[in-house]
Design goal:
Number of strands: 10
Helix content: 10-25%
Radius of gyration: 17 Å
Structural class: alpha+beta
CATH topology: OB fold (Dihydrolipoamide Acetyltransferase, E2P)
Distance between the termini: 23 Å
Order of helices and strands: EEEEHEHEEEHHEEH
Length: about 220
């Protein structure tokens, strides 16, 4: 695919209910281990608007003329996620009222981890990455991300033009900056929490009627 993709750096701190940024994990014990971050975007925030604008721009370049609502994006309605969690008898109340954004990277491309200390940023290098990373990057802390959006065509798509329902835009996780502590979210790691949800496609547009946005 010839689309160039687009970088995006968060402008406001956001809570991360699930982080797998120190050690990669498999999802549902399948596939290759991956690093990942699940972020809560607040309605009307700079980053929610910026991320959605970047996703649309990348999608339009890669799939000109395509109905964007037929593509898959790394964002979901927090209300729908809360309902899905409740159906699985899990607490997903923290999702409500937010847009849920997910970014990941493969085992060969671990995200750069850094810590905000006053007005300075310190990168976690060598042994620090694991020793400090495990203490700081827990489920529930506040972070900033640097990501890269790239369009993709699934193997399940038509090999000629890639217009199957599994085409979309993926968010690659490049850097994670720890900003502040937040209420810790306990329980299983994100790979376990979302094992039944990973890879699914939400056909319903949670913002139907607001505008012509695919979100």
């Amino acid at each position: 695919m010839s689309s160039k993709g687009q970088s995006y750096v968060f402008q406001e701190r956001a809570r991360a209910p699930f982080l797998t940024v120190v050690t990669p994990q498999k999802v549902n014990n399948k596939g290759e281990p991956k690093f990942g971050a699940t972020i809560l975007l607040t309605p009307g925030s700079v980053d929610k608007k910026g991320i959605e604008a970047a996703l649309v721009a990348v999608a339009k370049e890669a799939f000109p003329g395509r109905d964007l609502k037929t593509l898959k994006f790394p964002v979901e309605s927090g209300d729908l996620m809360a309902e899905w969690s409740a159906a699985k008898k899990k607490d997903g109340s923290f999702f409500r009222g937010h847009t849920v954004f997910k970014a990941s990277s493969n085992e060969e491309n671990p995200p750069v981890l850094s810590v905000l200390e006053g007005k300075n940023i310190r990168e976690l290098l060598g042994a620090q990455r694991e020793a400090e990373g495990r203490k700081l990057f827990y489920n529930g802390c506040y972070v900033l991300l640097a990501v890269y959006f790239k369009a993709y065509k699934s193997k399940q798509d038509d090999p000629k033009d890639g217009v199957g329902e599994f085409s979309g835009v993926k968010a690659y996780l490049n850097q994670v900056l720890w900003v502040a502590d937040g209420p810790r979210i306990g329980g299983a790691p994100s790979a376990e929490i979302f094992k039944g949800y990973a890879g699914s496609v939400t056909a319903e547009d949670p913002y139907t009627g607001a505008d012509d946005s695919p979100f």
